[in-house]
Amino acid sequence: MPKLTDKSIVITGATGGIGAAIARALAADGAAITVADLSQEAADNLAGEIAAAGGKAIGVAVDVRERAQVRAMLDKAADAFGRVDVLFNNAGIAQTRPFLDITEEDWRLVTDVNALGVLIGMQEAVKTFRQQGGGGKIINTASIAAKQGYEPLAHYCASKFAVVAMTQAAARAFGKEGITANCFCPGVVATPMWDVIDKGFRDNKLTTKENEAFDTFAATAVLGRASQPADLVGVARYLASSDSDFMTGQSLMVDGGMVFI
Ligand SMILES: NC(=O)c1ccc[n+]([C@@H]2O[C@H](COP(=O)([O-])OP(=O)(O)OC[C@H]3O[C@@H](n4cnc5c(N)ncnc54)[C@H](O)[C@@H]3O)[C@@H](O)[C@H]2O)c1
């Protein structure tokens, strides 16, 4: 088991499906978790649950599109736990739109959260890592949509391709300082995000039944089932731990075998 005892780990989108599973698991491993999400109340609730189970956590409200809020999130984590060792840029949104219907407003909404939010998170984390004397890990949640363009999710896919590009660029920019940047790519995970995507398929008359889009996409995984948030815990633990110290700039597919690269 990789050692995470007393590592200070900040997770954005931490009250959502994947983020909460990672937050709970890494807290149980001994890490001190900053649970960051849009809602202070939801963040406090999960931090309280972790503390009640014997772990260390604080809740912080953040909109990842807002640099001042991201800066404050990292400063609160450093104040509470002495430093920041790892930032998971995990917050994200999805939207189902047929290709010809994507508006400028749709594009800006999705790319502001999923791509600009990751850029700001990485920039501010590097400042924190430098203040601490160097070293640090950035872990971004990308997607199978970072490797394949799926209709009708073109703008979502573009935002996730951007995550891979920025991960590679940051790895090259900061490697000599001992700062690594990697991402993991989930497939079709049963979380509230897929409820939104599935409803979007129905609203756009691309499917007729609830979970039809979810089941159709999930059926392409060679391991024969959809992902659960718990399926992403192992890769998150590995990337947060010193076991991954000599890896940077990589995108790890953890999708049950949907996309082979
Ligand atoms: N569910 C999937 O199938 C799947 C597949 C591949 C990648 N992903 C990615 O995994 C990550 C987590 O998604 P999830 O499936 O857990 O979805 P989710 O909707 O359960 O969680 C997403 C979380 O991000 C938060 N968030 C949204 N906008 C934010 C903002 N501006 N600032 C701060 N937080 C914000 C939400 O409040 C929510 O808690 C996302 O980046 C998503 O794109 C999900």
UniProtKB/TrEMBL annotation:
It is an enzyme of class 1 (oxidoreductase). PROSITE patterns: ADH_SHORT. It holds the Pfam family adh_short_C2. Residues 7-172 form the Ketoreductase domain. Its EC number is 1.1.1.-, 1.1.1.304, 1.1.1.76. Keywords: Oxidoreductase. InterPro entries: KR_dom (IPR057326), NAD(P)-bd_dom_sf (IPR036291), Sc_DH/Rdtase_CS (IPR020904), SDR_fam (IPR002347). Belongs to the short-chain dehydrogenases/reductases (SDR) family. This is Meso-butanediol dehydrogenase/(S,S)-butanediol dehydrogenase/diacetyl reductase. It comes from Ancylobacter polymorphus. The lineage of its organism: Bacteria, Pseudomonadati, Pseudomonadota, Alphaproteobacteria, Hyphomicrobiales.
